[in-house]
Amino acid sequence: MKSFYITTTIPYVNSDPHIGHALEFVQADVVARYLRLGGFDVFYNTGTDEHGLNIYTAAKERGKDTKSYADEKSARFAELLKMLNIQYDNFIRTTDEHHKMAAQEFWNRCLATGDIYKKEYKIKYCMGCEMEKTESELVNGRCPLHPNKEIHTIEEENFFFRFSKYQKPLLDLYEQHPDLVLPESRMNEIKKFVQRGLDDFSISRLAKKMPWGIPVPGEQDHVMYVWFDALVNYISAVGWPNDMEKFNKWWPVVQVAGKDNLRQQSAIWQAMLMSAQLPPSRQIIIHGFLTNQGVKMSKTLGNVVDPFDIISRYGTDAVRYYLIRQVTPFEDSDFSEESFKFAYNASLANGLGNLVSRILKMSSDYFGSEPVGFSQEEWECWGEYRERLESFQFDRAANVIWSVIADLDAHIQNEQPFRVAKDNMDKAKEILRYLVGGLNQVALMLRPIMPVTAETILEHIAANKMPEQPLFMRKD
Fold first, then answer.
1. Which residues are catalytic, by number?
2. Better pLDDT: 321 or 293
3. Across-strand partners of 152?
4. Which residues of 261-288 are buried (b: 16+ CB within 10 A; e: fewer)?
C-alpha cells in the first residue's frame, strides 16, 4: 500500500479560528479522503502553533496563564475540525513534550552544520507576522498584511540562521523539482525572492523579554523564535527524531499553505531541512486568501467570518461544498453570506437536493421492492474528475460533478419518465435505471467533498427509498 503524508500549516492560537482556517482544513481533507478511497495509506497532520510573543501578550492582556490560554484556543481549533468532519490522523501542539524535544534536536543538527551563530542586531519587526521586515516590504511604514499594527524596532543579541548560505541550493532544488510549489505563479515568485539574495535571520529571543518559547539547548537565556519551532512540527508529527521507521514511512510531505506562508514554507523551511540534512518536502500547495468584499480576511483587521456560525446554520457539507467549488484553489476568493446563501440555494437545495428527491421518488414508485439494477460501470467523467483532484483543482473537480447533475436534470426533462410511465412502464424503468446509475456516480464522486451527503444518497439508492426530508432546505 502506498503511503501519503499531507499536512496543513498549524494555525497560530492568538485568536479564534476563522473561515480561512476552514478552507485549508477542508482542502487537505478532500485530498486525504480521495486518496484513502483510492487505496492509499494516508497520514493527515494538523494542529496548533502555540509559542511566541503574540500569544504571550494576548494571555497577559487577559490576565491568564499562557499555557492555559493556549489550551483554550487550541481546543477551539480541534472543535472546528470536528464540526467540519475533518478525518485527520494527528493533532500536534507545539507545546507537546515530543515536539519540544524534536525542535531542540533540530536546533542541534543545524548548529552542528555551522548554520547557527550569535550576533547583535537591529531590525524592524511586524507583530502580526512575527517576522522581521525590510524597508522595501513596508507600505507607508507598515506591514501590508497587518496595516493596523505598528512596526517595532528590536535591538538585542540573538542567534541567527545562516539563510544566505542556501541561495544556490534552493535554486537547484527548484530546478530539480519544478512542481515543488503549486501553482506555477507561486513557484516563480519564490524563485525571484531567492534570486534577489537571502539574508540570515534571527531564530531566538531573549527569555527575560519573552519567556514563552522552547529553550535553546545549552542557552537558557534564549528561547527559539516561533517560526523555527513551529516548522519542525511537520517532522516531529511523524516520529522524528526517535522513531525513524515511522518517519521514513511517511516523509516527504505535501504541505497545504496560504500565500502569506510562501516564503516560510518554500524557502526558509526547505533551507532548514537542508541544514539538518533531511530530504525536502514533496510538494507545497499554496492557496489564496478568502476576502470579505475584496479585503483580505484577517484576525487583525477584524473582518473574519465565524465558521462555527455558518456551519451551525447551513450544515457541515454545505460549508465544505462552498469552500471546494465556489473558492478558487490558488487565487483569492470572496466569501460573504450573501454569496454563500445564493450558492446553497442554487446548487444544493434546488440542484443536488431536488435531483435526489425527483429520481428516488420515481424510482421507489416504479420499482417498489424490486432491485433497480443500474450499471455500476464508471462514467467517462471520472477521468477528468480524477485529473482535476490529483492536480488540486478542487473547484474544477466539483464542476465535473455538477455537470453530471445538470445532465441528469436535462435527461429527466427530455425523456419525461413520469409521462412515459403512464403508457410504457418498462421504458420508464429503463430511463430510471440510467438516472439512478447517474445519481450513484454523483454520490461516489461526492465522497471526498461532502462525505455525509454522499453516504446518505448511497444508502437511499440501496434501499430504493426517497429521503423523508430534503437533503438541503432552501434558505430565504
1. 18, 21, 126, 129, 143, 146, 296, 299
2. 321
3. 125
4. bbebbbbbbbbbbbbbebebbbbbbbbb
In degrees and rounded to multiples of 5, residue 456 shows phi and psi of -65, -45
Q: Please report, for residues 130, 155, 476, the alpha-carbon distance to residue 221 in angstroms, rounded to integers and kept in the order given.
A: 20, 16, 60
Whole-angstrom CA distances from 363 to 370, 372, 451, 472 are 10, 8, 23, 20
Q: Report the DSSP beta bridge partners of residue 126.
A: 131, 151
Q: What is the DSSP string of 83-138?
A: HTT---SEEEETTSHHHHHHHHHHHHHHHHTT-EEEEEEEEEEETTTTEEE-GGG-
**What kind and span of H or E run contains 215?**
strand 215-216
Give the three cell numbers for residue 41: 495509506
Residue 11: pLDDT band (50, 70, 90) is very high
Using only the alpha carbons of the chain, give its radius of gyration: 25
Instruction: Name the percent of the chain in helix, strand, coil, to the closest 5.
Output: 50, 15, 30
Spatial neighbors of 221 by CB under 8 A, at least 6 apart, are 206, 207, 208
pLDDT one-digit tens code per residue, 352-364: 999 999 999 999 9
| CB-count burial class (<10 Å; 0-12, 13-18, 19+) for 303 | middle
Q: What phi-psi label fits residue 285: left (phi over 0), alpha (psi between -120 and 50 degrees) or beta?
A: beta
Helix, strand, or coil (residue 350): helix
pLDDT at residue 299 tops 70: no
Query: What are phi and psi for residue 217, nearest 5 degrees?
Result: -55, 125
Q: How far apart are CA 163 and CA 165, in angstroms?
A: 5
Q: Max Cα separation, the chain?
A: 90
Q: What is the pLDDT of residues 182-203, one digit of tens each?
A: 999 999 999 999 999 999 999 9
Q: What domains does the chain contain, in order, with CATH numbers?
A: 337-463 (1.10.730.10)
Residue position matching grid coordinates 478568502:
290
Torsion angle, CA of 123/126/129/133, rounded to 10 degrees?
A: -40
pTM score: 0.93
| CA 70/CA 258 separation, integer angstroms | 22
CB 277 within 8 A of CB 30: no
Residue 47 has phi, psi (to 5 degrees) of: 155, -155
Q: Which residues pair with 157 in a beta bridge?
A: 120
Encode burial over 95-121: b for 16+ CB neighbours within 10 A, e otherwise: bbeebbebbbbbbbbbbeeebbeeeee
**Helices marked H in 8-65:** 19-37, 53-61
8 A C-beta contact, residue 433 and residue 370: no
Q: Which of 379, 374, 349 is nearest to 467 (CA)?
A: 349
> Are the CB atoms for 371 and 363 separated by under 8 Å?
no
